[in-house]
């Protein structure tokens, strides 16, 4: 850990020098800098970025709160990094499903909106999150309820029949957790089939 701390100033200087030499501007207000640690009450020293003329600019490092990046939320000060994103995704999916269920329109078209729009948004967030099996089931429950409503079935209609293929006697709907798992698998495959560094990262991740 001490070695990592010693490397930070050098990395800061290298990045600063590179940007100055090539005429690049670092958008300091947009930098997302944070420290995620299991220890409580840890304070982090700010990062020093140099701009043209080797003028130092201080960038604070957050140790609490939520980081927003590429459409996802990450808990900085929590042991469970993806809890805020899970709660937000579930809330948004529940709201969208309720609105769609009450809306007028052809049930087939509404099911398509549910599958191609609402479920896809949840899948995007899920593919970059380490949600537990229970959390994945909670996401599925939101969509199962909507599918029952849109297919004019009672709340007691078996969940497995919603997702069982039509040629096997089910309704053949798409399970959102399956979509998330498929997206994660595709990400790993791209890493494994990529360059040397990408392949090494993909293999090491699969071994965890």
Structure description:
The protein is mainly alpha-helical. It contains 7 helices and 4 strands. A two-stranded antiparallel ribbon has the order 1-2. The chain has a two-stranded antiparallel sheet with strand order 3-4. The two termini are 22 Å apart.
Brief summary of the model shown:
The protein is mainly α and 208 residues long. It has helices spanning 2-21, 83-102, 107-127, 133-150, 159-163, 176-192, 196-206; strands at residues 47-51, 55-59, 66-69, 72-75. The chain is elongated, with a radius of gyration of 23 Å.
The proportion of residues forming helix, as a percent range, comes to: 40-55%
Largest sheet data: 2 strands, antiparallel
Mean pLDDT: 87
What structural category characterises the helix and strand content?
A: mainly alpha
The proportion of residues in beta strands is 5-15%
State the main characteristics.
208 residues; two-stranded antiparallel ribbon
Task: Break the fold down into its secondary structure elements and pairings.
Layout: H1 2-21, E1 47-51, E2 55-59, E3 66-69, E4 72-75, H2 83-102, H3 107-127, H4 133-150, H5 159-163, H6 176-192, H7 196-206
Antiparallel strand pairs: 1-2, 3-4
